[in-house]
Amino acid sequence: MKKILIPACAIIGLFTACDPAIDDIVTPSTDVTAEQLANGFTYVQYSDEECTTQAADGNFLKFETSPSRVVEIYQLDDEGNKNVLKSGVASGVFKLAPKRGGSPSQTFYVTTINWDGSYLTFDVTANVFVPTELAPEMRLLASDAYGKKVWKWDTSFRADGAVWGNMGYAPGDGESFATGGNGIWWGCPPADLTGQLGHSDTGVATGEENPDAYMEFYDDGNLITYDAAGNQIRKGKYSVIGYTGERTQATVDGSVANWAYGTLNTTAGSILFPFKINGGGEKPTDFEILQLDASHLKLVYAAPGTGGWAEATWWAFKSESDAEGALTGYGQKSWTWDTEFRGDGAVWGNMGYAPGEGITFANDGNGIWWGCPPADLTGQLGHSDTGAATGEEDPNAYMTFDWKAGTVKSYDASGAEIRSGKFEITNWGNGQRTQATVDGSVANWALGTLNTDAGSILFPFKINGGGEKPTAFEILQLDGDHLKLVYAAPGTGGWAEATWWAFKKK
Prior knowledge:
single chain; mainly beta; Immunoglobulin-like; eight-stranded antiparallel barrel; 7 helices; disordered N terminus
């Protein structure tokens, strides 16, 4: 126990909150020892946030102090940084939720301050539920963060919007197909699949012939296909065979060694439009995985014995539902300035807030008044907190998000660290624009919120803000390749000034 002498007003400020019910709780005038504080702290574990079902390994801990005493509850990460779980209350509920594969034994700390200035802390260890760590391929397919992942047709893969068709099998290495469509003879956009029902087993449209039809991959191995309205089309099981993270699987005839990442095995007819082209309604169950990352899934089916340039079937899917996967790749993922967003190379600037739906800003920069390329940020240091260049004013500066550590670190072009902090994504709507503008005027504005410690991202300054470093950024775009953020101060109305940032995958 260490003692710190601080004014009584500061003591109260550390442990009180804005909630009137909390502010009524006054730190007792009687000083206690750390042992007395620990003996008066009790908790019960529950499996649900409402605390209706007790569980020995529950992730929700309902606590009380006796006698009633305002405390702060926190954990420490591997670097010794504090993560506050609850503060300014004498009782309440907090959550312990380690990431998959973490230790079920979780230590947290309880602290208070006596009126004599002594600072008291004790630690508690509780066993909580931790999901089994997913295999890398399952993280990408089904999400490590959300337990399921939505995959839709990837109409952006080709200029013609095609998502299914035929190809000359194994035209080269698998990468050339995954990124450039090498070998494709013909493809069909989703809406045109209604004209391809002769390849199906029934000849009847099901609703999967729509660009908004989707599949849900669950981390328990279930797979369900839906039409655009959310009506179930079919369901089945899936597994991944032979995945190593590298292209180690050869073509079915052995002619190309570095072809696929592995095989997606499914119950027959589980995926969207699951039909072999020119196959008389055949529904394959083994698909070669030609691309698998947080945002892209490309599959190929070639019957056993298919040789080079013989006919095979291909599918292209995308996911926008997995924010954590897109941002971090479930490891460490780096982002740099997106100088390709606008013709002038601008990556930061101001805008008239909420000019319409969020998608119009994400795609076209709708609402932007002015923007600045990275190199010109040296002329904008009056908006920073120091007025000094740091190296982030370079098109090759970057920031790295770390999934395991929950950190974001910014670097100059040489790799020298500029600043760092913690990050968290909140209000994520499964890839849908469910977050309204700060004034509530536009309902379908943002995808969620990126919360960071102040000053963590590249050039983290509000425009015309006197060096203000926001901590809550509206996510206007987040996929495997693009990240666009907006900051609008609370109460900002339509067309009032906001700040925007544009990043791309490094």
